Amino acid sequence: MLGAIVGDIVGSIYEFDNHRSKDFTLFGNGCDYTDDTVLTVAVAECIMNNGNYAEYIKDYARKFPARGYGGMFAQWIRSDDMEAYNSWGNGSAMRVSAVGFAFDDMKSVVAESKRSAEVTHNHPEGIKGAQATAIAILMARKGQSKEQIKKAIANCFGYDLNRTVDEIRPVYVFNESCQETVPEAIIAFLESTDFEDAIRNAVSLGGDTDTLTCITGGIAEAFYGGVPKDIAYKAMTYLPPLMQDVVKEFREWRNLC
């Protein structure tokens, strides 16, 4: 999940000021973690403690307020209601990476990614986006090829993964839906040559950049066998101690160090 956090931090400054190029300073001025990281860490800790996703997600969001939460999610945070609100937004996919790293079989990943999504994003597209992201991570961890990942995700979820980054970039606009974020994030990974190149591909697309790059980063970490040490170290410096501890614990728990 550290790759997802890196993606979030790197992409954070481009969310509302898109950068349609792969040429940029990786950790630019003003980079910071956003809601993507907060909720990714919440899901990771919940998994390790066999907890309730709604409780962990709400608790983390309250501990780390004003991190760019969407309007409906922000209302849900403030309420005492634990009922989902039928969202198809990309929030379910941005926070799911830990599921792909924590479970080792397809059945478990499919079921657990659904559970992590549906506490808020119980719309079919919200669930589908989380499942597609987590399955891509699992397949990448298991040594499946990019072509195998592409075929499986396209067949299972109906996403068009035949486009290229260069084709998407000129016409892609800000979109917070799973169906208009997850396929593009996967394509950014599929065209990459290494972890950093995947992050640069994703940023260059524009759109909801921090979330797009968060999704790409999680898959790229799994496929390329981790995050380069210098990039991982830099990303960790942005996190508060509590989140640093959870990330370290999760990585040790899953032998990702």
- Give the H and E element order: HHHHHHHHHHHHHHH
- Average pLDDT works out at 97
Please identify which CATH superfamily we are dealing with. ADP-ribosylation/Crystallin J1
How much β-strand is present in the residues?
A: under 5%
Quick one: CATH class? Mainly Alpha
Q: In terms of structural class, how would the helical and strand content be classed?
A: mainly alpha
Low-confidence stretches: none
Shape, per Cα inertia axes: globular
Number of helices: 15
Number of domains: 1
Gap from first CA to last CA: 12 Å
Number of strands: 0
* Fraction of residues in helix: 55-70%
Give the CATH architecture. Answer: Orthogonal Bundle
Return the CATH topology.
ADP-ribosylglycohydrolase fold
The largest β sheet comes out as: none
- Computed CA radius of gyration, to the nearest angstrom: 16 Å
Furnish the topology, listing elements before pairings.
Elements: H1 2-11, H2 35-48, H3 53-63, H4 71-78, H5 91-94, H6 97-102, H7 106-118, H8 124-141, H9 146-157, H10 165-168, H11 182-190, H12 195-205, H13 209-223, H14 229-236, H15 241-253
Helix pairs in contact: 1-12, 1-13, 1-14, 2-3, 2-15, 7-8, 8-9, 8-13, 11-12, 11-13, 12-13
